[in-house]
């Protein structure tokens, strides 16, 4: 410090202090961003499990919805905490985050969620997304052969759809006597999450291309991928609507109609990659994709009160 009471920026000790504190602040900020980046998708997962209970016409167990959300949070945080080549381009805001602390938080969330589900003999379902998530992120190595789910065209989207579809339907339909509604819900959410994951691939085209990840937009092109997603979306909702009308699944037309419209808007507006996604576009995308289930439940509640 100089004689006039001001900080002397030429002092090496001062420069070291500034650099160290800047690093700590940057690291803390990145870590907090990493921890909060999975919150919305986990909350959305809880509402999806609740919707699955409604469609299967099973008694809703609130603790199971919460446990499911904790496991979803753990798996997505685990994925984002493990550095991958494409993430250095797609998620630069996570650079410098404390992976160890994030993994610790993810482990705690998973243990709590798995314990709750285990009390109702659902421990296998709890581990399903964790095991698949590890295979998706890191893969398995057998000598010179490496199995990694991120590499092939559409494989990642299929794995995401099947895993989370089975997870959601498995929790909600665990006590159902008729397996058909559970199977329909599995196919419905499996398709929806396939589509959603492909929509997010459009946001990461640059990083995936550089890393050699053959996602649908990279392999099929934007237009063909958009047509495929729209076709899958319309077929899945039309199928569920048919079984809704004949009473096989719960009578939830408001939820299904909102899901149909939200998906169409999402596919039409967010399957065109942009170099930099502004805050307004990101907010709209998050509202339509991750916020769809909670918005649908809110709309159902309001509609019920009015009618």
Automatic annotation (TrEMBL):
Keywords: Membrane, Transferase, Transmembrane, Transmembrane helix. It is a multi-pass membrane protein. This is Prenyltransferase. It comes from Methanolobus halotolerans. The chain crosses the membrane at residues 49-76, 97-116, 122-142, 154-173, 179-200, 228-249, 255-271. One of its GO terms (cellular component) is plasma membrane. GO terms for molecular function: transferase activity, transferring alkyl or aryl (other than methyl) groups. It comes from the Archaea.
